[in-house]
Specification:
Blueprint (H helix, E strand, L loop, with lengths): L15 H17 L4 H22 L2 H17 L11 H24 L18 H9 L1 H7 L5 H11 L5 H8 L3 H22 L1
Length: 202
């Protein structure tokens, strides 16, 4: 009985990562050519991961959504920023998101960082704030400053502005360009979270 002839295997093994990279490369080429629909496809492929990165760093859904919008705006306005020779698009794009999140955190800390040692002392806060909360903050000021680092950046910012810079809630609303109700909610939620953190340490 004659041996069956050797038939070459024409099936190619497909690396999912290589396939994804090829799809991204094709979409970027379309985007550079002015095809706006390519951005929608890139968004569908990567928005969930970009949002997750923002949420991980910023711990605030609203800020994570803003970051997602900003990062996709970067690739829409300047698709040439991505250069294929540096590697696949996805890892580069996620680094852009991570770096943007870090920039947001640094900017928030600079805006609320006291300029000298005297400013580390508590200022006279909004008289509308609960006196009991103020007394608690004063007593626990050193521990509070450490615990603030565990708060979402939006809550940390308003508490620092209120208790360490002496801003009223109306002043904070104007300074941060946010509705007064939003500021009040952030202060209240931030204080509740601070209590939880400090009580867990005891």
């Amino acid at each position: 009985m004659a041996n069956a002839p050797n038939v070459p295997n024409t099936r190619k093994s497909t690396d999912p990562r290589a396939a994804d990279a090829a799809v991204d490369a094709a979409l970027l080429a379309r985007l550079r050519a002015g095809d706006g629909s390519a951005l929608a496809e890139i968004y569908d492929r990567h928005a969930t991961m970009v949002y997750s990165i923002g949420l991980k760093f910023l711990r605030d859904p609203g800020l994570a959504e803003d970051l997602t919008h900003d990062v996709f705006l970067v690739i829409w306005e300047r698709p040439e920023r991505y250069r294929p020779e540096i590697g696949p698009f996805a890892p580069w794009f996620y680094r852009v998101a991570r770096n943007r999140a870090i920039d947001i955190l640094r900017r928030a800390r600079r805006e609320t960082q006291p300029g000298d040692q005297a400013m580390f002392e508590l200022s006279s806060p909004d008289p509308d704030l609960d006196p009991a909360e103020l007394a608690w903050i004063r007593i626990e000021s050193r521990r509070v400053r450490a615990a603030l680092l565990d708060l979402p950046v939006t809550q940390r910012t308003v508490i620092e502005l209120a208790y360490f810079r002496g801003m009223t809630q109306r002043e904070m609303a104007e300074y941060l360009n946010e509705p007064l109700g939003t500021i009040k909610t952030r202060v209240r939620n931030g204080l509740l979270k601070l209590r939880e953190i400090l009580e867990a340490e005891e």
